[in-house]
Amino acid sequence: MSRRNRITRAAVTVAVVALAAAGCGESSKSASTGGDKESGTYSGKGIGLAYDIGGEGDQSFNDAAHAGFLKADEDFKIGGQTFEPADGEAEADKVQRIENLAKQGYNPVIGVGFIYAPAIKEVAAKYPDTTFGIIDDESVQAKNVASMVFSEEQASYLAGVAAAKASKTGTVGFIGGVDIPLIHKFGAGFEQGAKSVDPKIKVIDKILTSTPQEGGFSSPDKGREAANGQIEAGADVLYHAAGLSGQGVISEAAKNKVWAIGVDSDQYQQDALKEYKDYILGSATKNVGGAVYELAKSVYEGKPLSGAIRGDLKSEGVGFADSNPKYTEMTEVVEAVDKAKQDIIDGKVTVKTS
Question: What is the pLDDT of residues 251-277, one digit of tens each?
């Protein structure tokens, strides 16, 4: 498998540092002063990272990207800047943010989330010598754009297997942030995995909002409310794909002493969730941090990645985190998840995306 169609297996295990947002759409943090000038291979200003809805501190998607940002700065000393989105901002604000980063000389410029696709498409055409990256979207076709996408349905299948094996009530729940195809991938994989264990298992689905602007990815209160409803309906394992809203799902699960399954990052390891971690069975992960790191590395080395770069179970771009000792003690659950993972890698199981 070539360099341009995979995400490498290098793990990014950097502690995420909490940063204070400086205002709507403003820079939230710079890394080092930038530039390993001694190498003579990099002349940019550093990494320009534009966060998705929910921003930094979501303990999930954005924080995973930030971990890759920190790791790249640590290894290459190229510096960089991160930018927070504004609540309810217009598409023009995203375009301005991405263009400002390119104009100032940041390279690569990375949009964290599919919401940046139109902005990346527009600005990449104006700055052909800058490498742009976008996570969770592959609609932008350009030589200077790397689309970092993942087989989320595969990791979600493993979450479904774990949920079904751990459930005592025969009812599990999925809570998605926004009604979009990406979130449907999470839900489809989860339900297929759960029903591979028990065809009669009840899977309750709940999507928090129709659009991102309504707060589906940024409202812990919406997550708590949805979790409470599923728990009242008998669910004893809840899996979320809801960004910052997922913190509400996890806290409500812990309050009711049922299992939660995290997403994107290993949420058992997140400091902001440590009071709930005993109830985090595991997390369906995707190596967003690794994708950010590898794109930065490729630009630093003068061989920028481009095109679609997909992370799946085989490349370790997605997976199921098993940090909770309580999970590892559940040998039947672990064995079932491990077998499901190998079956997917071997092609014995094809996971649905809708």
Answer: 999 999 999 999 998 999 999 899 999
Q: CB under 8 Å to 339, separation ≥6 — which residues?
A: none
The owner of tokens 């970092």 is 148
CA distances in angstroms from 16 to 112, 160, 270, 342, listed in the order given: 16, 27, 8, 30
Go through 236-263 and write b for each residue having 16 or more CB atoms within 10 A of its CB, e for each that does not.
bbbbbbbbbbbbbbbbbbbebebbbbbb
Fill in the amino acid letter for 165. K
| Side-chain-side CA neighbours of residue 307 (13 Å) | 7
- The residue assigned the tokens 């129709």 is 210
Contact 212, 115 (CB under 8 A): yes
Contact assessment for residue 238 and residue 231, using Cβ atoms and an 8 Å cutoff: yes
Residue 47 backbone class (left: φ over 0; alpha: ψ -120 to 50; beta: rest): beta
pLDDT at residue 12 greater than cutoff 70: no
Among the listed residues 316, 320, 324, the one whose alpha carbon sits nearest the alpha carbon of residue 290: 316
Q: How many residues does the chain have?
A: 354
Tens-digit pLDDT profile for residues 163-210: 999 999 999 999 999 999 999 999 999 999 999 999 999 999 999 999
DSSP annotation of 68 reads: H
Residue 349 and residue 342 in contact, taking contact as beta carbons nearer than 8 Å: no
Kindly state the helix (H) or strand (E) to which residue 64 belongs, with its residue range.
Answer: helix 61-76
- The pTM score is 0.85
Report which residue type is found at 225.
Answer: E
Distance in angstroms (rounded) separating the CA atoms of residues 163 and 157:
10
What letter does residue 209 receive in the DSSP assignment?
A: E
